[in-house]
Structures are given as structure tokens and as C-alpha cells.
């Protein structure tokens, strides 16, 4: 067992190596680690204050991340010994490190969602402030929202100045949001996988781009049905003795992707007019189990279908007959 301190991409690591020794000079560990680590059978990196999930060196090594078990005496030697022991008995869970492309796409979607939430929050705060003065905005779209606010505060100069500042901040957020949304549309339009996923009813550019960024590599799932549990869309089973209770969905995994799949399923079930075998299946579940459970079940099935289309390189088939003829 070898215990090392090294740096890759300006991040510090504590490294435990088993199966064979690795000699790394202390003066230049970065170059030697980049050359030697791919030849090892098992390497585990214990991250300190930084998680090197976006460094090219870590991606080239196929990194795996783990939080080590603390011993009574917290020393570097004990940490390295404990990590090496966990590797010997395979007591660790590999974590997939996403590619830089998927991380960039996820950052784009997160930034877009952040600006959208902030703009909606300002609009709700404006409604609340005006309500204290007995002014009700009512149901109004985002395009005519500013004109409606200025109309309500036209006779209140002091309040109009306050609303002008908030409306200016809201307008700035809306403009930046439109810029990011156009970037999302352009990225989805240029990607072949996203174009195939958008052939599914209810799946748009945001959902397809988020799915590609979340799954990253479809081959890391044994089969398409494994995507549903990974996104927290399957029920939790609680067994104890004679009791066998099936609870709600587990809600594990990516919350953003799960919410987008739920929205896509809701759109397919309630807004899409064109009939398909998928909508017929969802309507049957809705009549038997209720609309809410049908939407969750449809969201899980959408994830399965999207993964299968991605793996096979095919497009969505609207009828069962076309699917059978193609097969």
C-alpha cells in the first residue's frame, strides 16, 4: 500500500494505491500521476475540499469518488490504510464522472432555471406589494405585465418610482433569460440525439437537452428500465415480516430531470392532441389509478423510451403497427 499526496489541475488529493507499488517523485507529481495512474488496476481518490470532477486529467483516468471512513485518530497514514482496505474488499461504490460537454449543458440549464425563478419571484413580490395598497394585478401574461403595473400605479408617484426599479430588474432578468433560452434551442437543434428525442410527444428542447446531460453515456445502464429507478420514478418497497407496503416514488437521483419528465408527461397527457399508443396507455392507467399516478408512471416510461431511442438511434413510432413493421 502506498500513501501519496499529489495535485492534478490545482486540486489536492490523498491517494491510496493497492495491487502494486507506485513511486512518484515529490517534486513533480502531476506529470508522473498522469502517466502512471492509467496503468493501475484500481485507484481511489479521496477528495479534500475540492472535487476534481471537471479536470481533464481526472476524466482521462475514469475517476471514482468516495468519502472515506474516519478512524479514531485522524491521520494521513490511517486514512490511506482505511481507503486501501476498502478497495481490497470492494467496499466502495463507483460514481460516474460526467463528460465536460454534459457538465456545460447542465450549467446552461441550471443558469436558465435560476434566471427564470428570479424573474418569477420579482413578479410575485410586485403583486404582493401592490396588494397592500388594494391594487390587484389579476391574471396577466409576461408580455403585458409591465404595462399593467404602470397602469395601476399611475396615480401613486412614490409607489410608481419603487415599481419602476423592480420592473427594470425584471426586464433585465427576462432579457438574459431569453438569451440563455435561445442558446438552449440552438444546442438542442444542432445535436442529433436531442432531435431524435424531440420526436416523442411532449418532449421539447429543454427536456431532451437535460436528459442528454443527465444520462451522459447511455451504455452505463444495463438496460433502459434501469433509468426509471436511477431518476427516482419507481415506488419504494418496505417489507418487514408479514407486511409488504409499496410507498411513494423514491425521489432519488436528479431532481431537475425528474421535474422535467413530470412536466413532459403532463403535457402529453393533457395538451397533446395527436393520438399515440403511449397516450392511450397513459389514459388507461389514469382511468384505473388516477391522473396523478398516471403522470408519474408516464414520466418513468418516457425516461425508458428516451434511453431506448438514444441507444438504438431510432425515432419515436406513433403506432404499435409501425413499430412491429420496423422490427
Task: Describe what this molecule looks like in 3D.
It is a single chain. The longest helix is centred in the middle third of the chain and has 34 residues, at 157-190. By secondary structure, the chain is mainly alpha-helical. Strand 4 and strand 5 (243-249) form a beta hairpin. It is built from 13 helices and five strands. Strands 1-2-3 form a three-stranded antiparallel sheet. It has a two-stranded antiparallel ribbon with strand order 4-5.
Which helices and strands occur, and which strands form pairs?
Elements: E1 2-8, E2 11-17, H1 29-36, E3 43-47, H2 56-60, H3 76-88, H4 100-131, H5 145-152, H6 157-190, H7 192-197, H8 205-215, H9 227-230, E4 235-240, E5 243-249, H10 255-270, H11 277-289, H12 291-312, H13 320-326
Antiparallel strand pairs: 1-2, 2-3, 4-5
Helix pairs in contact: 4-6, 4-8, 6-8, 8-10, 10-12, 11-12
Amino acid at each position: 500500500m502506498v500513501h501519496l499526496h499529489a495535485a492534478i489541475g490545482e486540486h489536492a488529493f490523498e491517494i491510496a494505491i493497492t495491487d502494486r507499488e507506485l513511486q512518484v517523485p515529490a517534486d513533480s507529481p502531476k506529470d508522473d500521476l498522469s502517466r502512471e495512474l492509467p496503468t493501475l488496476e484500481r485507484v481511489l481518490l479521496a477528495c479534500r475540499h475540492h472535487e476534481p470532477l471537471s479536470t481533464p486529467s481526472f476524466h482521462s483516468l475514469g475517476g471514482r469518488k468516495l468519502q472515506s471512513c474516519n478512524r479514531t485518530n485522524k491521520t494521513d497514514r490511517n486514512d490511506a490504510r482505511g481507503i486501501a482496505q476498502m478497495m481490497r474488499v470492494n467496499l466502495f461504490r463507483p460514481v460516474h464522472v460526467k463528460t465536460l460537454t454534459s457538465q456545460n449543458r447542465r450549467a446552461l440549464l441550471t443558469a436558465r432555471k435560476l434566471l427564470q425563478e428570479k424573474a418569477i419571484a420579482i413578479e410575485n413580490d410586485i403583486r404582493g406589494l401592490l396588494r397592500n395598497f388594494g391594487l390587484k394585478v389579476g391574471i396577466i401574461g409576461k408580455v403585458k405585465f409591465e404595462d399593467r403595473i404602470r397602469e395601476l400605479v399611475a396615480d401613486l408617484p412614490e409607489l410608481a418610482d419603487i415599481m419602476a426599479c423592480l420592473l427594470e430588474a425584471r426586464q433585465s432578468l427576462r432579457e438574459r433569460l431569453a438569451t440563455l433560452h435561445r442558446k438552449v434551442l440552438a444546442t438542442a437543434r444542432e445535436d442529433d440525439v436531442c432531435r431524435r428525442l424531440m420526436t416523442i410527444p411532449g418532449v421539447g428542447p429543454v427536456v431532451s437537452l437535460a436528459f442528454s446531460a443527465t444520462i451522459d453515456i447511455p451504455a452505463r445502464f444495463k438496460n433502459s428500465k434501469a433509468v426509471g429507478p436511477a431518476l427516482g420514478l419507481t415506488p419504494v418497497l418496505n417489507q418487514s415480516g408479514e407486511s409488504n407496503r409499496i410507498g411513494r416514488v423514491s425521489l432519488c437521483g436528479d431532481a431537475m430531470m425528474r421535474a422535467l419528465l413530470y412536466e413532459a408527461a403532463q403535457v402529453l397527457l393533457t395538451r397533446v392532441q395527436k393520438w399515440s399508443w403511449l397516450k392511450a396507455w397513459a389514459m388507461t392507467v389514469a382511468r384505473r389509478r388516477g391522473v396523478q399516478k398516471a403522470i408519474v408512471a408516464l414520466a418513468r416510461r418516457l425516461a425508458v423510451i428516451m434511453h431506448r431511442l438514444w441507444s438504438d438511434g431510432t425515432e419515436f413510432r406513433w403506432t404499435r403497427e409501425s413499430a412491429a413493421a420496423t422490427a
